[in-house]
Amino acid sequence: MLCTKWAGSTVVICNTMYVIQTERLGLRNWTTEDIAPMTAINQDETVMEYFPRLNTPEETQDFVLRMQKQFADHRYCYFAVDRLDRGEFIGFIGLMDQNFESEITPCVDIGWRLTPTAWGQGFATEGARACLDYGLNDLQLSEVIAMAPSPNLKSQRVMIKLGMEKGGYFEHPMLTPAPHLNPCVWYFSKRKA
Ligand SMILES: CC(C)(COP(=O)(O)OP(=O)(O)OC[C@H]1O[C@@H](n2cnc3c(N)ncnc32)[C@H](O)[C@@H]1OP(=O)(O)O)[C@@H](O)C(=O)NCCC(=O)NCCS
């Protein structure tokens, strides 16, 4: 799909296939060009405040490969997100299989991680609302779960704004090295019958 967008006095022309497009965002599969900006996001202390540690460049590269495989297999992943007005990559929002051992898995979860200059403008909520609709209605998933460490109130605010229901709390095994992040809270949305 060829899209032409006005960004102030600049015309941004992008030749991008978006899986999901909202008013301000394009959600798509990953390319190798996304690895460098995603590495920068994954190494930003502010972004990673509620994670046990920063992610290395190698981990980000592995993450991008995992997302590409997940998308090829299931037509969903944590999608790479572009701001349409600037044609600029700002992070990820999307759906992912979660199989770690816990009382709420296996499940499909909805997650988000954006560069700080994009925060506070409703982008996470806008992109995630479209992902929930895509997952529950287009892909006919029966349920989507969202989870966050209990101190991460920003992320929980997105879940509430999406209209998700609170399920409760659980101990995330990957957060064992950072006990201040447990328990995690989880929310859910089910497909309407
Ligand atoms: C969480 C994140 C994706 C939110 O992105 P965003 O585009 O700023 O989100 P939105 O603008 O759609 O909504 C954020 C909401 O949180 C609210 N918020 C911000 N800081 C908050 C805080 N400290 N406590 C409570 N709510 C807060 C905002 O006011 C807004 O709600 P409102 O619209 O009712 O005012 C972004 O902060 C991020 O990438 N964080 C780092 C990665 C991360 O923590 N991911 C989640 C892991 S569980």
State the main characteristics:
single chain, 193 residues, five-stranded antiparallel sheet, three-stranded antiparallel sheet, 33% strand
Major β-sheet, in short?
5 strands, antiparallel
- At the first level of CATH, what is the class? Alpha Beta
Mean pLDDT: 93
Q: How much helical structure, as a percent, in the residues?
A: 25-40%
What is CATH's topology name? Aminopeptidase
Number of helices: 4
Uncertain runs are: 1-13
- Report the β-strand fraction as a percent range: 25-35%
Structural class: alpha+beta
Task: Note the overall shape.
Answer: globular
Q: Which architecture does the CATH hierarchy give at level 2?
A: 3-Layer(aba) Sandwich
How many strands? 10
- Spatial gap, N to C terminus: 33 Å
Draw up the topology in text.
Layout: E1 2-7, E2 10-15, E3 20-21, E4 25-28, H1 35-42, H2 57-74, E5 78-83, E6 88-98, E7 107-114, H3 123-138, E8 143-149, H4 153-161, E9 165-170, E10 184-190
Helix pairs in contact: 1-2
Bound molecules: coenzyme A (COA).
Structural summary, described in words:
The protein has a five-stranded antiparallel sheet, sandwiched between helices. The longest helix is centred in the middle third of the chain and has 18 residues. The protein has a single domain, classed as Gcn5-related N-acetyltransferase (GNAT) (Aminopeptidase, 3-Layer(aba) Sandwich). 26% of the residues lie in helices and 33% in strands. The termini are far apart. It is globular. β6 and β7 form a beta hairpin. It is an alpha+beta fold and 193 residues long. Bound molecules: coenzyme A (COA). The site of coenzyme A has 20 residues, from β7, α3 and α4.
